[in-house]
């Protein structure tokens, strides 16, 4: 993936973001099938975890865990592509849903956010406890930043839970990403799309817990900055959006990671400005940076029209393969 180039028929970061999510092929053969488990959380809430079903999982093969992005799920194009590649490699595969993303409103006032490393840690520890095989974790976009924050906070202890982590198109500088998505075409297209689902969920949460936040003010929100200031930040213990974005960003702490970690970002990602990406001197020895010129935001389409998105999981799992085979990864 570090040498990835987009097909000539799909130029530019926006096209490489939108087209793969909507029209490119996500798998070959039968669609991924999932078995859902509902887990009660320590605070009296629940999350739903989807486990891939299939006959090709070797008993001692690793468990691949995918943490989805903002408003994503196990049905997202990248989740299905990783499910296909996990099946091809004989891996077990699980997609935990952040609260409110599995199709049912969660019970507690809290939701989820980009720096939610406590939730990531609880999920991974529970999966590791029940799995005899090694655990590999991939986080996409928001899920990627949260996964990196977990690896940073866990430090040396992370290795007892996961063999390796990979963050795909993660906005590891939340302020840079938040401002980028709040202006111009990004605001008209992507921000509007996200708010179309985030606002109704938040208002349903307000009906569930009256007085939780200012409903009319949230209805007037037109950017993710405003939404986070009203809903995400105060519900999760932050003073405001600026405090949330500063404390939730993974970029300043990448040197603290002590397990193999891949940080993959396309330099034409509309959500993540190339200027905000880290250099080699800003990360520790366990972190590998891949920053191809093309790919968009969680796109990385390949092949002739209409293309496919299988190069992404193939590249990430190719990087991870030496880890689960017991050899060090190559940068």
Structure description:
By secondary structure, this protein is an alpha/beta fold. The protein folds into two domains: about 15-175 and about 255-325, Alpha/Beta hydrolase fold, catalytic domain (Rossmann fold), CATH 3.40.50; about 175-250, no CATH class. Helices cover about 35% and strands about 15% of the residues. The chain contains ten helices and eight strands. The chain has helices at about 15-20, 75-90, 115-130, 140-155, 175-180, 185-210, 215-220, 225-235, 240-250, 310-325, and strands at about 35-40, 45-55, 65, 90-95, 135-140, 165-170, 260-265, 285-290. Helix 2 crosses helix 10 (about 310-325), helix 3 (about 115-130) packs across helix 4 and helix 8 (about 225-235) crosses helix 9. The longest helix has 25 residues, at about 185-210.
List the helices and strands and how they pair.
Blueprint: H1 13-22, E1 33-40, E2 46-53, E3 63-67, H2 77-89, E4 92-96, H3 117-130, E5 135-140, H4 142-154, E6 164-168, H5 174-181, H6 184-208, H7 215-220, H8 224-235, H9 241-248, E7 261-264, E8 287-290, H10 311-325
Parallel strand pairs: 3-4, 3-5, 5-6, 6-7, 7-8
Antiparallel strand pairs: 1-2, 2-4
Helix pairs in contact: 2-10, 3-4, 8-9
């Amino acid at each position: 993936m570090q040498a990835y180039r987009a097909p000539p028929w799909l130029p530019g970061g926006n096209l490489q973001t939108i087209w793969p999510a909507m029209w490119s092929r996500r798998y070959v053969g039968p669609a991924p099938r999932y078995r859902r488990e509902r887990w009660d959380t320590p605070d009296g809430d629940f999350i739903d975890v989807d486990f891939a079903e299939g006959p090709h999982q070797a008993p001692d093969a690793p468990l691949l865990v995918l943490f989805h992005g903002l408003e994503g799920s196990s049905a997202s194009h990248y989740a299905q592509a990783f499910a296909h590649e996990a099946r091809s490699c004989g891996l077990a595969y699980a997609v935990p849903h952040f609260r409110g993303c599995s199709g049912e409103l969660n019970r507690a006032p809290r939701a989820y956010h980009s720096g939610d490393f406590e939730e990531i840690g609880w999920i991974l520890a529970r999966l590791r406890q029940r799995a005899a095989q090694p655990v590999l974790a991939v986080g996409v976009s928001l899920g990627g930043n949260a996964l990196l924050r977990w690896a940073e906070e866990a430090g040396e202890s992370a290795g007892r839970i996961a063999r390796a982590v990979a963050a795909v198109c993660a906005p590891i500088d939340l302020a840079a990403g938040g401002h980028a998505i709040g202006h111009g075409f990004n605001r008209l297209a992507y921000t509007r799309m996200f708010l179309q689902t985030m606002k109704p969920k938040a208002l349903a949460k307000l009906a569930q817990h009256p007085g939780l936040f200012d409903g009319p003010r949230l209805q007037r929100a037109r950017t993710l900055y405003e939404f986070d200031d009203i809903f995400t930040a105060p519900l999760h213990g932050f003073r405001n959006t600026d405090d949330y974005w500063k404390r939730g960003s993974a970029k300043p702490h990448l040197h603290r990671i002590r397990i193999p970690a891949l940080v993959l970002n396309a330099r034409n990602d509309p959500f993540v400005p190339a200027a905000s990406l880290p250099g080699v001197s800003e990360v520790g020895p366990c972190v590998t940076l891949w920053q191809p010129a093309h790919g968009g935001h969680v796109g990385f389409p390949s092949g002739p029209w209409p293309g496919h998105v299988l190069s992404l999981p193939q590249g990430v799992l190719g990087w991870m393969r030496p880890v689960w085979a017991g050899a060090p990864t190559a940068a």
